[in-house]
Amino acid sequence: MKRESCGVMAPPNWCAPKPSSRMQYRLMRNNRPQHRFITAGLLAIALGGSPCFGDTVWLTNGDRISGEITDISDSTLKIKTSYAATVSLDTSAIQSFSTDSAHKLQIGLKKQTTQIQKNDQQGYVTIDGKSIAIHDLRLSPSTKHWKTTGLLETALDVDNDHDRKEHLHINGELHLESEKWRHELKGEVKRDKEHQRITEDTQEYEYILDYLFSDHWLLRTDSIYREEGATITDQYIYSGLGPGYRLWGDDEDKLDIIVSYDHFWLSSGPLDLTLEAISTTLDYNQYWFDKKLQLFSDIQISHIYHIGVDYIANTSSGLRYYLTDHIHLSFKYDYNKTKYTFGKVKDSSYVLGAGMSL
User: Fold this and answer.
1) Mean pLDDT over residues 113-142, rounded?
2) Domains recognised in the chain with CATH numbers
3) pTM of the model
């Protein structure tokens, strides 16, 4: 007689009892391929239950956040997650972080593209085998598409005294930037009235185009049109072209120096004058206190090749204090001077106003 067993050696003359129909059903149900559990597992993976891939931030309290790191400043790290949009973290609360791919970074004044690894020391990461403090890092996001920024500022001052003075100032800027190109369009309007009589009526428009050869070298073309005067209209047209070099900075924080060959067209009443010059321009912009305070300055000195005119200096400097990401207070000081052989002409003005940013 054939011995029947359930996977063990059966004693002689022993036959395992055959299961009942109810037991057969239970055995068939328990040994059935677990398609439902496999399907559920696949659904969990599809819905995000799989292990997280991407950049990872470890916090000092033991939490971990995964996603895409979009910005790093001296005090803030921003990471875009799939479940809570963009999360802003204080760098003091970060243990360390890592990236799953190479990022374009700035460490101090040095720029490089590399992958970041986790470091066991709090507040540090590992880059190329070296420990780097997180607050020393800056992220330079890729600008495959156009980056658009801008602002609009205004100031209105009315003195209700016997002179009845009114001062109106409007300033606007639009910036478009890609990997290699940078466009800046600026417009400014000033109008002063006293006893209902216009004492100043000035409008100025400027277009700047930069082509970036590298992280430091650029080629700039700059054009300005200014019209001013209450009774006699004066026109000022400027066009320049020349190379520039970024002394330090990246993205919004910068100090550029540009040397250009320029043409000036001046018109005042019946007088028309054409000048040629070599100009040196310093373009400075920097944010402080986690982008709460912005300092900016644009200084240009043009050495004129014309008998009787020595140089023309145009400066514009100021600051903006951001109440929110889009609302700010502003202070701007302008100083212009033209030095002639027989004398000089200069004017200055300042404006305190408010504005909004894109």
Assistant:
1) 85
2) 55-139 (no CATH), 147-357 (2.40.128.130)
3) 0.64
